[in-house]
Amino acid sequence: MDEKIRASGFSIRRRMPDSPLMVRTDGNRMHRVFQNLIDNALKYSLPGTRIYLYAEEQPDFISVSIVNTASYDMDFDAETITERFVRGSAARTGEGSGLGLAIARTYTEACGSAFRITVKGDQFEAAVRFPRQHSPIN
Description:
This protein is an alpha+beta fold.
């Protein structure tokens, strides 16, 4: 994935805590989720823009989101775009099968986490929210 990011010409800006954020989840599925989300951002970002990766810790959850500026009009419903074989725009031809976001949502939910797409103007955000695993004090 690193080589693909370098070859894309996009820069990814990271905003996250200095210390590691720990979650209990299926690492293989989450690897695929974030691979799909980053790949989606690389394919559909407006040339010359940045892709942002945010991670934050809250008392009850840890949230990771990827935000990019779309290179096309986002004329779709945020819920519909995560259905299988649905693509964001009729103008998007060639790359993509319409499965990346569907797989990301399905895998995220299968791991007990939440998946959300938000569209604000030309900004596309895909977010994964992991529940915090609180250990009882003995």
